[in-house]
Amino acid sequence: MQLLRLAWALAASAVCFLLLLLLHNQILREGQLAAGTCEIVTLDRDSSQPRRTIARQTARCACRKGQIAGTTRARPACVDVRIVRSRQWCEMTPCLDDEGCDLLVNQSGWTCTQPGGRVKTTTVS
What we know:
This protein is 28% helix and 36% strand. It has helices at residues 2-30, 81-86, and strands at residues 37-46, 54-62, 67-72, 75-80, 100-103, 109-113, 119-123. Belongs to the TAFA family.
């Protein structure tokens, strides 16, 4: 009878241990991004100046080897590191499909021009 109780106690302990292990792994996985993906961490908007909105966003990315955090179609994305090193920003397709991309003269960023003439300027810091 005592042997049966000991077996049940050991089995219950093993099940509890496995459940704790699974729960621990799930908690660790939730904080990690899948390889090649990004998420926006902070987004601040300043509309204090008339006809002008300044937006600053911070993204967290888990890029693969040879990639770095960048922008594709107005969203954070992993892009080829060569694009960032050469400062040829328009090669990463940072603007939406209906917008035109132009490099700033000093290559510190780019502009996206919408069909109606509205211009969005992005600078890299």
